[in-house]
Amino acid sequence: MLDLGAILTAMVTPFDAEGGFDEASTVRLMHHLADHGSDGVVVAGTTGEATTLSDEEHERLVRLAVDEMGDRMSIVAGASSNDTRHAVHLTERATEAGADAILSVTPYYVKPNRRGIVRHYEEVAKATDKPIVLYNIPSRTALDMPNDLLAELAQIDGVEAVKQARYEDLEPIDGLQLYAGNDDILAKVLDLGGPGGILVASHVVGDEMRRMVDEPAHRHEIDAGLKDVYRALTVTANPIPVKAAVHMLGVIDHGTMRLPLVEPDEREREAVRAMLERHGLLATA
Question: Which are the catalytic amino acids?
Fold first, then answer.
């Protein structure tokens, strides 16, 4: 039975002022997350600006997470590409680096048909002995994996969970653990019996999201109190707002983005700052 934990943070990748990979800030951020409700981290995912990482940086990031936090948190490595050969290569390297599981997004842009999706995941599954978490996010990939296809993919050895970032037809899938792929559906997924979520807001309100797991009687009350957090962290494209937030909190040294993503403008920055102030977070930074 897959046991990665309940609160998995889809972690930003800290860069230095020149845009290089900042290992010191990465380690500091991982410890911050572990101290504030996260059971694990997902590195080199969408929020981690994975498409801007070289293969060498990707492996360095996974190895750093495993070496620094492997005895304290589960480490899930994003290892995705719209080229199956490249996805297999990244999966092999993440496996060798010691990741506990692989997060594998639907091939984007090329929009493969159903048979192509199945073949893609069959090849990815052959490349690792680690559990695979499917990642269904049609708003980014322009391709939805309906529930019957997810159930078919669950028959592939090693495919054990799905990060579901679709709002419609949200339901358990036979053979797959269901993880919330959006912050604002965590409560619903928990109500459906899912183990938790792969989340962004847990960078800043991880303790409260942990309470949604541990205190089911108060789950929806806590969720309602976090709606403004979810809004502020979607004021512009992810991960721009959340990277600005952890920089404002002093957890990472710089809020540098890699193009084509850019740092927030003044309106966006103020929305993030106001949210942090409302929740009393800047006062403790």
Answer: 135, 163
